[in-house]
Amino acid sequence: MRSQVAIIGAGPAGLLLSHLLHLQGISSIVLETRSRADIEATIRAGVLEQGTMDVLTAAGVGERMRKEGALHHGFELAFGGKRHRIDLHGLTGKSITVYPQHEVLKDLVSARLAAQGTILFEVSEVALHDVATNKPYVTFRHNGEAQRIDADFVAGCDGFHGVSRPAMPDQATRQDYQKIYPFGWFGILVESAPSSEELIYAQHDRGFALVSTRSPTVQRLYFQCDPADKVDNWSDDRIWAELHARLENHDGWKLKEGKIFQKGIIGMRSFVSTPMQAGRLFLAGDAAHIVPPTGAKGLNLAVSDVKVLTAGLVEFYRNNSEAVLQTYSETALKRIWRAECFSWTMTRLLHTFADATPFEREMQRAELENIAASPALATALAENYVGAF
Ligand code: FAD
Ligand code: DHB
């Protein structure tokens, strides 16, 4: 097989890249180890920045997002028994949409297939070759047969555990940055009406909690937990007791309970691998960087990487120039580091660190009080959250 771009991974980064390239007349083949049903059912992100919505809309895959997604103009910070609203739209002129990542994936997969795009699901033994040369190729197995794609470029969009980052040909000089947090998030899906019109990010001595939503009948809730804990240790009753304790406040607001139909624990890390290009191999999305989910940035960063990479590839095929591609890593990393900073800040601000001194706990509370008291600080938070720049 031959294609201009071989894309490893059918997550948001790989599928969007394939679609944006197609719109510019550039061919690609997407390889994915999992099945279509599996990627379309995996519950992950929920918050789309305005810039992400704009990219999806401009690419013609935003119709269902606009119809079924919920536009949120603000969110609440809860601490010390009170709630304080961050007026995203009032402070920045921008809003966010809560629309599940797997619905974005469904929209992208159907757009690719409708345009006769090639996505090969359930491939195995994916290996990258000669990526330091102008004739890279990828080998893999599909339907039991050994296959090969020859390409001009390879895009590594295969997430944190993929094969692309280890295949970067500059291993000796690469620089990785990492921070692993001493906690994780326990996430649940619940059949109930929303408890709140907007997301609630809650700081509490017992640990962080987050009230999010998926639809008028399905809610998404998270709470800080031990990353080594087991889902089986958490009965439904124990989960509700913990959420009530962390979300309790003095204004009579009550969390609505319902049938819990999904439970999972995710670990939390900050990670950046640099540079994001070596030879003809380009990394995008979680393959190159991870943020803790507190700032809701992961999916949005994958989209912004892909936007930058598409511009470079278009320049190459239109004007036979690699100038824009050569600046891909530098351009993408500027936004990535700022999002890393925001995600770390939100994580620090809202989680309970077991080893924090009483002084550090008071500093955390004072920082929240400062945001609640200062429109300037609230604006800075809102600008980062909506991705205003
Ligand atoms: P992925 O989605 O990981 O996709 C990579 C794909 O590559 C996968 O389908 C994988 O199966 C495939 N693959 C792996 N190895 C290979 C291989 N060898 N060959 C071929 N294919 C391979 N982000 C936000 O912006 N907002 C949020 O609200 C948010 N909330 C989150 C909540 C949770 C619980 C979690 C876990 C994440 C959240 N994120 C959020 C982060 C977001 O989900 C990720 O950043 C996003 O999925 C990154 O997309 P990606 O395409 O780079 O990688
Ligand atoms: C969701 C996930 C996040 O990481 C976040 O900050 C807000 C919402 C969600 O899955 O709904």
**Roughly how many Å is the radius of gyration?**
21 Å
What is the helical fraction, as a range of percent?
A: 25-40%
- Helical region count? 12
Low-confidence segments, ≥5 residues, pLDDT <50? Answer: none
Which cofactors or ions or other ligands sit in this model?
flavin-adenine dinucleotide, 3,4-dihydroxybenzoic acid
Indicate the overall shape: globular
Q: What's the average pLDDT?
A: 97
Number of strands: 19
CATH architecture of the largest domain: 3-Layer(bba) Sandwich
Distance from N terminus to C terminus (CA atoms, Å) equals 40 Å
Return the structural class. Answer: alpha+beta
Main pleated sheet: 8 strands, mixed
CATH class call of the largest domain: Alpha Beta
Strand content: 25-35%
CATH topology heading of the largest domain: FAD/NAD(P)-binding domain
Let me know the CATH homologous superfamily of the largest domain. FAD/NAD(P)-binding domain
Overall number of structural domains = 2
Pfam families: FAD_binding_3
GO molecular function: 4-hydroxybenzoate 3-monooxygenase activity; FAD binding
EC number: 1.14.13.2
InterPro entries: FAD-bd, FAD/NAD-bd_sf, RIFMO-like
